[in-house]
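Course exercise 7: structure representation. Students receive a sequence record and must write out the corresponding structure in token form. The form below is the worked example handed out in class, using Putative transcriptional regulator, XRE family (178 residues). Read each field label carefully; the graders check that inputs and outputs are placed in the correct fields and that the protein name is recorded exactly as given.

STUDENT ID: A-19
EXERCISE PROTEIN: Putative transcriptional regulator, XRE family
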Amino acid sequence: MSKLLAYRKKFNLTQEELAEKSGISVRTIQRIEAGAPLKGHTLNAISKALNIDIESLNGQKNEESINIKLIKLINLSSLPFVAIPLVNILIPFAIVYYKKEYNRLTKEIISLQIFWTIISTILILLSPFANRLFSSEIRLTLPVMILLILINITIILVNTVGLDKHQKNYIRLKFSFL
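STUDENT ANSWER:
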């Protein structure tokens, strides 16, 4: 059951009454109650109409309905592809898209993989310049690649443990690419 539907029933309102009170069309309210995301002007108007804060209303799934097993699978799906840039992002994204598991945790997982791919690419591209800077005979590109892959594997496994124990990612960004 969507949060909007739960609040509407709690306040004993019909869809038509809520539409009139909020200035949002009945069809939009029906789509939101069926699972469409609630955001922007619609979120503000409905939260004001119901006199509840946006955080309480924002999100269509209750915390109990988040599929942790599927989210762990999404997280672990990057693991076989940590050495292949973009595939470690596309596989989890494809699972999220086809399973329609859009939530904060999946956005954190994919955003972290995007960020890590960008940082890894930059560091790998800079490693030959580090050789010249330090006048080193040892090629740094391969050791840097191996170290970055091991760090990414660690991030994925640590987040899997966090999802398993506390239903949250231990390692996450303070911003999102999605």
